[in-house]
Amino acid sequence: MAINQNGHNIIPPEQVEKAEEQLRTLQRQYDYDTKDYPLRYIMQLFEEDELFVPEYQRELKWSEKFRVSFIESLLLGIPIAPLLIAQLDDGRLEIIDGTQRTRTLLEFFKNRLCLSELEKLTEFAGFYFKDFSLSRQRKFAEETLRVQVIYDETDESIRSDIFNRVNTQSLPLTSNERRRGAFPGPFTDFVVLSASDERFTALCPVSEKRGKDEHQELCLRFFAYSENYTDFEHDVAPFLDEYVQQENQQFDEQNQAKKSQNFEKMIVFVNQYFPHGFAKSAKSKATPRVRFEAISVGSHLALQENSETIPQYMDWLESDEFIEFTTSDASNNQGKLKRRVEFVRDCLLNRITKDDLNYTRISQRL
Fold it and tell me: Which of 185, 206, 225, 184 is nearest to 344 (CA)?
């Protein structure tokens, strides 16, 4: 193939035409039509097995919270991604993408899904579909959902290919990315700014893939846990969501000054006394979240009690207890979070001495 003066391949006209012909041919195989179906009609088709889930699709996996959130979105009129279905030779409709939504709708219409943990429509908490007024039941049933129908000329291999592309080609948002989009505000901006502090990022090595997003996640966890770790129960995401929403509403100059001061003191302290910052070693390319939480929040708690804290020893970082408290299975539990941050606090305040700890793992490594 010829090369132009910029070092790029020169594509001959006949190859361009062949490529165009190939694209036109394959596009016809992926042709579809867009329709708007009432929810009651979708449920009717599904119950009559005219609309069905193929064997390669997964069973119902959405948590109750996700299912309730989906129904709430429909009630509020929030745009929902369309169902993607294929019409077979016998006229039946096969769901390519949308089984979770369809099954959730059926659960709700069959009064098997209770509307708990609603974010906006709190007055409907505890409602089943049967508890709606008759007029609201009718209106909801007549709400439409967009459906993209692939014609019956599409063979099974094409349908499987579409399913694979739909389910693998979009990267899911991280919790932090979703949070930034869902809860914009002055505190959210403050977290982004704080996480960009060069001293902080130097103490928190993260993979190139995670980058800024992970630093923002860690920064948010420091603020949320340092202020409210005793209120944390089990699920991290809703705990952080609620904290961000509250802080965005009440964030002012005084609040910002206090948080900035606490963050600054913690960074300076960790940089001074922790040989590898929040990481396990000088060569670490990642910062375990549970380790970060323990060190950052524990240091903050120690400084709150004694702003002149000077730890007498740092060997506890290699103790069996600290290693146990900061393994991955130590997360998502209120008792374990409390135990690890207060352990670090007490070590830094010299309430726990070196003789109180075990170091069998070090001896095993040696």
Answer: 225
- Count of helix runs (H) and strand runs (E) in the chain: 16, 5
* Residue 58 buriedness (CB in 10 A; 0-12 / 13-18 / 19+): exposed
Asked whether the whole model's pTM tops 0.70, one would answer: no
Residue 163 has pLDDT above 80, yes or no: no
Q: Pick the most confident of 85-89, 321-325, 346-350.
A: 346-350
Sort 23 into a burial class: Cβ within 10 Å, 0-12 / 13-18 / 19+: exposed
Residues 6+ apart with CB under 8 A from 301: 226, 341, 342, 344, 345
Contact predicate 275/200, CB 8 Å: no
Q: Which residue has the higher pLDDT, 278 or 20?
A: 278
Confirm if 214 and 177 have CB atoms less than 8 A apart.
no
Any idea which of 8-22, 212-226, 273-287, 297-311 has the lowest mean pLDDT?
Answer: 8-22
Let me know the angle formed at the C-alpha of 47 by 46 and 52, rounded to the nearest 5 degrees: 35
For the chain, give every domain's residue range.
Answer: 18-168, 175-365
How far apart CA 296 and CA 75 sit, in angstroms, is 42
State yes or no: pLDDT of 288 exceeds 60: yes
pLDDT of amino acid 366: 44
- Residue 245 φ then ψ, to 5°: -60, -45
Maximum separation of any 2 CA atoms in the chain, in Å = 81
Strand order in the sheet with 93-97: 32-38, 144-150, 83-87, 93-97, 51-52
Residue 200: predicted pLDDT: 96
Q: Which two tokens stand for residue 28?
A: 């016809």
Cα–Cα distance, 236 to 240 (Å, whole number): 6
* The token pair that represents 323 in the structure block: 């290693």
pLDDT of residue 191 exceeding 70, the answer is: yes
Tokens of 297: 């929040």
Pairing of strands 83-87, 32-38: unpaired
Strand 32-38, strand 144-150: pairing: antiparallel
Burial class (CB in 10 A: 0-12, 13-18, 19+), 204: buried
